[in-house]
Amino acid sequence: MSDPCDILIYVEDPGAANYVAGLPAALSAAGMEARLLAEPAAAAIAAQVGAACEAPGGRLPREWLEAVRPRLVVVGTSENLDTPAFAFTAAARAMGIPTVGAVDAASNSAYRFRGRSANALEHAPDRLMVPDAWTKQSYAKLGYPADRIAVCGHPHFDTVRAFRAGFDEKGRSALRERLYPAAGNAPVVVFVAEISGGLNEGQYRKSAD
User: Fold this and answer.
1) 125 neighbors 77 (Cβ within 8 angstroms)
2) How far apart are the first and last CA of the chain?
3) Rounded Cα–Cα distance for residues 130 and 141 (Å)
4) 59, 98, 108, 189: which has the fewest Cβ within 10 Å?
5) In sequence order, which residues have a C-beta less than 8 Å from that of residue 192 and are 6 or more positions away?
């Protein structure tokens, strides 16, 4: 449990886990040792892609850092306004360890590092890794230095492209027949929704917009 590593990664939410789950294996292939700490919801996602992770247990963030002495700390974002990711960032900064925030999407940019403060970047790490230029721009507009934001893509984009290739090969009609055999030639409308009250409750409430 106290074995040292080059990079310590902490994630709490499924979205963050989906973004970084493949990172330990990629870093290992590059000759670096990484350990992934994941809370239960994030661990379930990591398990789906076969990523080994550890439960943080009762250890405080600073205790983890003192035990494994990483050269870099990577944290995901979370809907928890008191996420331990902030404590990991603060402890790492106090110990002189560089930090990176892994942001999986542009949504709620002004809330991901706010915590309970009024400052959108109150708990922002030293650098950010983001999936696309749109997300980079959203943080630059908030005042985060653009030269410290790396656009890295998103591993799940590749997964979606692979699924699409399979669907295209089988054809739309075959997919309709498998999923909606009773629909015939009638239009099929699929509704997808997510209910979340963590970062910005207002966006899930009815408004004039």
Assistant:
1) no
2) 50
3) 14
4) 189
5) none
The whole-angstrom separation of Cα 47 and Cα 29 is: 19
Give which of 1, 85, 72 is closest to 42, Cα–Cα. 85
| Angle at which helices 155-170 and 172-179 cross, to 10° | 100
**Over the stretch 77-94, which tens digit does the pLDDT of each residue have?**
998 999 999 999 999 999
User: 140: burial class by Cβ within 10 Å (0-12, 13-18, 19+)?
Assistant: middle
Domains and CATH numbers, the chain: 7-155 (3.40.50.2000)
Secondary structure tally for the chain: helices H, strands E: 8, 6
Whether the model pTM is above 0.90: no
Q: Both tokens of residue 204?
A: 């899930």
Q: Note the Cα 12 to chain centre separation in Å.
A: 9
In DSSP terms, 34 is beta-bridged to 7
129 - beta bridge partners? 102, 150
Start-end of H helices in the chain: 14-20, 23-29, 40-48, 61-68, 84-94, 133-141, 155-170, 172-179
The HSE-up count of residue 83 (CA atoms within 13 Å, CB side) is: 28
pLDDT single digits (tens) 149-205: 999 999 888 888 888 887 777 788 888 888 899 988 899 998 887 666 666 666 667
> Which residues have a Cβ under 8 Å from the Cβ of 206 and sit 6 or more positions away?
none
